[in-house]
Amino acid sequence: MSRLRFGIFLAPFHPAGENPTTALQRDLELVAHLDRLDYDEAWIGEHHSAGSEIIASPEIFIAAAAERTKRIKLGTGVTSISYHNPLWVAERMVLLDHLTRGRVMLGCGPGSLPTDSMMLGLDPTDTRELLAENLDIIMRLLHGETVSATTRTHTLVDARLHLRPYSEPLFDVTVAAVASPTGPRQAGTHGIGLLSIGATLSPDGFDALAHHWSVVEERAEAHGKTVSRADWRLVGLMHIAETREQAYADVQFGIESWFRYFQKTAAFPQMAVEGGDVKEMIDFINDAGIGAIGTVEDARAQVQKLWDQSGGFGAMLLLAHEWAAPEATKRSYELIAQHVFPHFQGGQVTHAQSTLEAKERAGLKREDYAAQQMQAVATMTERYAAEVAAKG
Length: 392
Hints:
Layout: E1 5-10, H1 20-36, E2 41-44, H2 58-66, E3 73-80, H3 86-99, E4 104-109, H4 114-117, H5 124-142, E5 147-150, E6 155-159, E7 173-177, H6 182-190, E8 193-196, H7 203-207, H8 209-222, E9 232-240, H9 244-251, H10 255-265, H11 278-287, E10 291-294, H12 296-310, E11 315-319, H13 326-339, H14 351-364, H15 366-391
Parallel strand pairs: 1-2, 1-11, 2-3, 3-4, 4-7, 7-8, 8-9, 9-10, 9-11
Antiparallel strand pairs: 5-6
């Protein structure tokens, strides 16, 4: 297995009515915490309505997070490019690429909340059509072309970037996918990464995993592009504790608020989560196969299941949430870093296998080597006694 990267997808999800200032600070502290734990990536969402996903500009958040971190890569997860002038999207990302010394990534999507797009006079069909148009323009600009184009929302006349990216040849660019083939088609067409947000968040999306990558490869071949599974990122749900009982107790803090957001507020049917009470919600996450609330063993099994279902991917992104209180949430990420990462990193022989095999080898030889150690002590003791006797 090639090294599987780990990260988070931070929408974020905060209960409406609480202090947004302190909630945003918790988000920044979480990214810094993950940087210390050696997580590879953090993707930051863009939303403008509904009162829960309160980051309006992932680029501004990334600039703040970059000053608090050292190595974690920071991506827009995603920039709703249907809402923006594609020239300015490209310009802002190139600026961030320089400011972060190459730690930035661009995720593109049409926008997930209709309550966002409706304020711009755009319906969900409009945003998906604009996604294709604007992504094409952005990629052309990032590759150094001069672009003249007219879309429904913007006109570009001899537009070009005045800065080249810091990253050579270009920072990572991905396109979001939920359950339809729209995202995979765009990823293959442009030879860029795929960010499967909904593929692990619903039974239908989970079943579509292998099909999604087939679409990417088919479109890439048709357009003469090269794609890699290393650029495929899956988003999934987890909360981990030392015991299942502790994990179940932890999520009573906030899982109901998260479920009610998707059940009653967000017009996002791809996230049709089920559950009337906390027990039913926990059972839905675990039994539907879309996540793991439990122990590190449950987390490892979930990642392995996704790997097997998909045929392999490059990064496992944990959907950030506040099911548990802040300290329990941080502990969940710590346990995953300590006990899940090593089983999926290290190459043909993973870090976990390497140390476990070393332990096993030492255990098999323990009695023989212990006896030799004792014999060595006895021998040196006898030699010392003989030296003392000779001097006397």
